[in-house]
Write a structure and sequence with these properties.
261 residues, alpha+beta, Fructose-1,6-Bisphosphatase, Chain A, domain 1, D-Maltodextrin-Binding Protein, domain 2, 2 domains, eight-stranded mixed beta sheet, five-stranded mixed beta sheet, globular
Length: 261
């Protein structure tokens, strides 16, 4: 069914179950919230509960796999596979009642992604991909989109949590690109941005200092959809440029992608 191995269908269903749980708390007035790395890096009780539910279930289904989750950190396994989890990507959006947030779950073999699923609960949009088996949006195989010129491109980006103190907080990049493209979007959930690039809704995306969990599933969506994904890594943070190959080449030349911490 849809060319995905049977062992991954329960994981897809798990992502949807977690999304439904998040919907039940959306715009709740009694939700507890705290900060992590900076005053604008939030975590809610829903993030923590979803993280625990995903980790517990994957530990049962895939005993021996390493599991890295945004909220619980690393649980080292004995095998060659790793699960990388962002239980609620777009926590700030979720916490203020903005409907763009996502569940992201990926499985990697060594340094390569082999499976990923992203579910956007409030939009009921489901994305999944398996290595060499294609990428799907709402169970429809994503086909490669014809590239566009820079002047007709709609791009997306974001801003790092340390933007108040970072030397390079991406604002100069945005100012540089605004007059050169059709539009720039800032959705606030990197996993969803990447899926929209895979689906051809967005032509390209760049961002500084993403966590592994932000890109672990979306990276596979993009490459399985026949689009380009490039990144550099420094201090466990990833600087990403992805989308139409020709646009990516231009963006890499145009943008300042140094971490600038």
């Amino acid at each position: 069914m849809y060319n995905i191995d049977e062992i991954y269908w329960p994981v897809i269903d798990l992502a949807k179950k977690i999304g439904e749980y998040q919907k039940s708390y959306f715009r709740s007035e009694n939700m507890k919230m705290s900060t992590k790395s900076t005053d604008v890096d939030f975590v809610t009780e829903v993030d923590l509960a979803c993280d625990r539910m995903i980790v517990d279930q994957l530990s049962e289904w895939f005993a021996g796999d390493t599991i890295l989750s945004e909220e619980q950190g690393l649980a080292k396994g004995t095998g060659e596979y790793s699960w990388i989890i962002d239980p609620l990507d777009g926590t700030t959006n979720f916490s203020i009642g903005h409907p763009i947030f996502a569940v992201s779950i990926a499985r990697w073999q060594g340094d390569k992604p082999v499976f990923g699923v992203v579910f956007v609960p409030m939009l009921d949009e489901l994305f999944y991909a398996q290595s060499r088996k294609g990428a799907y949006m709402n169970h429809v195989l994503i086909s490669k989109k014809e590239p566009v010129e820079m002047g007709q491109a709609v791009l997306a980006t974001g801003f790092p949590y340390d933007r108040a103190t970072a030397h390079n907080n991406n604002s100069e990049n945005v100012a540089r690109m605004v007059p050169k493209v059709k539009g720039i979007r800032r959705l606030g959930a990197a996993a969803y941005d990447l899926c929209l690039v895979a689906a051809g809704v967005l032509d390209a995306y760049w961002e500084l200092r993403l966590g592994w969990w932000d890109m672990a599933a979306g990276m596979l969506m993009i490459t399985e959809a026949g689009r380009s994904f490039t990144f550099t890594k420094e201090d466990e943070k990833y600087n990403v440029v992805c989308g139409d190959e020709s646009l990516c080449e231009t963006l890499i030349n145009e943008l300042n992608m140094e971490n600038g911490i």
